[in-house]
Write a structure and sequence with these properties.
The chain is an alpha+beta fold and 409 residues long. The chain has 14 helices and 15 strands. The protein has a ten-stranded mixed sheet with strand order 3-2-1-8-10-9-5-6-4-7, with helices on both faces. A five-stranded mixed sheet has the order 13-12-11-14-15, with helices on both faces. Helix 12 links the parallel strand 14 and strand 15. Helix 6 crosses helix 14, helix 9 runs antiparallel to helix 11 and helix 10 packs across helix 11. Pfam families: MreB-like_C. This is ParM/StbA family protein. InterPro entries: ATPase_NBD (IPR043129), MreB-like_C (IPR049067). It comes from Lactobacillus kefiranofaciens.
């Protein structure tokens, strides 16, 4: 941090319908893509900037206490918001991506407000770490930034460029409200790259986001074991011919075919469905059967459904059963899309990769059935199927975007 209170950054962001996945310089953050209005009487108590221990504790866990005022020409609904976990417990209705809406991510304010907030809090935490006081003003310059949009949005003429301009064409003003001194952050972006979701994921599977060499190790262990391979690395993906990536998100599923890491023309598309839509339908069905259950956001529902704390965890089992009922339709759509790609590519698919946060939700219920379908479609040489491990599946797009940001000229 320079003496003029300016921090320069290289950032990447995969702004999902369910969760933000962000890397700011080196640290990574994952938090729900939700916000809520800060209404009179609902504000957090301001922390005295002279109470250094309290300030330090707050900034050590800032992701749980984000309270910002946003003023930016890129935002349609400027205002004061709780962002992330605090929005879920604020007492006002959370504002979530409407996964059932036709509005695309490129038009929504949520991803930008969440991103501007996390960048501003991270900058403040780094300043405080270096100087041990809360400043009134900070300047943040993101020199290189990579992000992504669903494939079908990218395909609309002008959307990729107009989305990049929402970041690069303006100075964005963010006010942090947690302290007795308001912190005013001037945020700007210099170079912006917008990648298609799914394609970013394959970049993250081929290249190590830290070292920028071919990826290897644990991320491929399940594939090596299932197909009795001696080894497998990111370089093998470049040699696999046509690779079909299925990126299962909250509100969209992106299908992308790459060959040697490059998109195959006319073989990339999205469907407006995802585990978030399945979760919202499951919540409706659950509350019809058990009206005593309070309303909840889909992130909370999926977390409960997947916690699986043992044979006596009836709550998790019931939630999971309702979710599985809804995801059956999703699985049918995935199979039909794979059949279409099989026909279009004359059966020439060397590998199928399933990733995204939704892959974790579907795997136990869908793995064996999906493998059977693929074996029937490919009677001679069925492609390898890689279900990216839970540890990596949600952040694979982010990995690819980090690679993009680091190599950006």
């Amino acid at each position: 941090m320079a003496d003029n209170n300016t921090l320069h950054m290289v950032d990447a962001s995969d702004g999902g319908n369910g969760f933000m996945k962000v890397q700011l310089n080196n640290p990574r953050f994952i938090f729900p893509s939700i916000m809520s209005d800060v209404l009179p009487g609902k504000e957090l108590e301001a922390i005295d900037v002279n109470d250094i221990d309290n300030v330090k504790a707050t900034l050590a866990n800032f992701i749980d206490k984000m309270d910002v005022k946003i003023q930016s020409p890129a935002i349609r609904d400027n205002g004061r918001y709780f962002v992330g976990p605090q929005a879920s417990i604020s007492g006002t209705e959370p504002i979530n991506y409407n996964v059932k809406s036709s509005e695309g991510k490129s038009e929504s304010d949520i991803g930008l407000i969440c991103l501007f907030s996390i960048i501003s809090y991270y900058a403040l935490s780094k300043f405080f770490e270096n100087y041990n006081y809360v400043p009134a003003n900070l300047n943040v310059v993101v020199d290189k930034f990579a992000t992504a949009l669903p494939i079908d949005e990218i395909k609309i003429k002008g959307v990729q460029q107009s989305y990049a301009k929402r970041f690069a064409d303006y100075h964005h003003q963010v006010t942090i409200n947690n302290f007795s001194t308001l912190v005013h952050v001037d945020l700007s972006f210099k170079k912006v790259f917008v990648d298609p979701e799914g394609v970013a994921a394959i970049t993250g599977l081929i290249f190590d986001p830290e070292r920028l060499n071919y990826r290897q190790g644990e991320i491929f262990d399940d594939l090596v074991e299932e197909y009795a391979l001696s080894d497998f690395t990111g370089e093998d993906i470049l040699k696999a011919g046509n690779v079909l990536i299925i990126d299962i998100g909250d509100g969209t599923i992106d299908f992308a075919v790459t060959n040697k890491g490059i998109r195959v023309p006319n073989q990339n598309r999205s469907i407006l469905n995802g585990v978030g839509i399945s979760a919202e339908n499951a919540i409706d069905a659950l509350r019809q059967k058990y009206p005593v259950i309070a309303p909840m956001d889909r992130q909370t529902f999926i977390k409960i459904a997947n916690k699986n704390q043992g044979p006596n965890d009836k709550e998790s089992k019931v939630y999971k059963s309702f979710l599985d009922e809804q995801t059956s339709n999703l699985e049918r759509q995935i199979i039909e899309q794979v059949r279409d790609f099989h026909r279009a590519l004359h059966g020439q698919i060397g590998m199928i990769v399933l990733c995204g946060g939704g892959a974790n939700v579907l795997k136990n219920h869908f793995h064996d059935r999906f493998k059977g379908v693929i074996q029937n479609l490919f009677p001679f040489n069925a492609p390898y199927i890689l279900w990216v491990r839970k540890k990596y599946a949600q952040t694979l797009n982010l990995d690819g975007l980090v690679v993009r940001a680091k190599v950006m000229k």
